[in-house]
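Lay summary. Proteins are chains of building blocks that fold into shapes, and those shapes determine what they do. In this project we predict the shape from the chain. Here is one chain we studied, written as its sequence of building blocks.
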Amino acid sequence: MRRSFIALSLTVLTCASLVIAQDTSSKSPDWAYGVPNTPPAAGGAPRQPDTSPKRIPDSTQAFTLAELRDFFHVADWFPNDHPPMPEVFVHGRAPDVRGCGMCHMPNGKGRPENAPIAGLPYAYVVQQLLDFKNDLRASADARKTNTTQMIQAAKAMTDDEIKAAAEYIASLKYTPWVRVVETETIPKMRIGGNVFFPIADGGTEPLGNRIVETPEDAERFELRDPHSGFVAYVPRGSIAKGAALASSGGSKTLPCNVCHGQDLNGLGPVPAIAGRSPSYIMRQLWDIQQGTRKGVWSPLMKQVVAQLSPDDMLNLSAYVASLGR
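And here is the predicted shape, written in a compact code that computers can read:
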């Protein structure tokens, strides 16, 4: 790890210690974790297997649904979009290490239910994998089962696999693919696999005090199209509120650019957050505040989020996601 981070850490800890913690624990924000707040309805009759080859715009590849869902042989629609993937990204290692590209996509941009990891610093990625491996990082909402899968994979990864994954992730360029829209009303949604999907002919529903992130095109999402992004519906006024809090700290916290850089695109081993998934940003703020993300570098953020309310975190998530487009 880079020794320069130690000096930065001490500086931030000194500043953050001026923030007085308060009890902000409350019910988990269901919307950020993509879990329903009521039990799902019973499913219908099982579907017949679809073995037909699938295609997406601008790709010469063809894959069946079974191939697209294979955790140990990650399908890649656009292999020329990124450097060659290492073995751990394509195939993983059965039974516990799934191919990283299955969840995080071959381009590392991720989806609302997991992390957008492209372009994160090498040292940061290594440390997060070690935190998962050493039981220092978990979800504050136990219903977020893919976090358990991430922990299982990290525990089984070798040092060489961690290094290969971190080098590949750091080599990728992240470009935002979340379109942020302020609104009061959204299409009526259902939740499947920790992701919101519009209900066909379902009408509308109030957004309320939450962020709803959903695929721009549900069919292309199911086909794992890395050129089809997401729209995040956020409450009216949340972006401006988040911008004010991020820039000043609002007497509750530190300005975000102290650690994450002037444009929030990272600073040394500190990760970029601009333009990333608001669902993911909210989950991390909440997990840190609730104490389930408690890795080596987490104490820096623990003090920073101590006084933030759920509304503050929502506003920050909406603002940060709106950057870079």
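What the prediction tells us: The mean pLDDT is 91.
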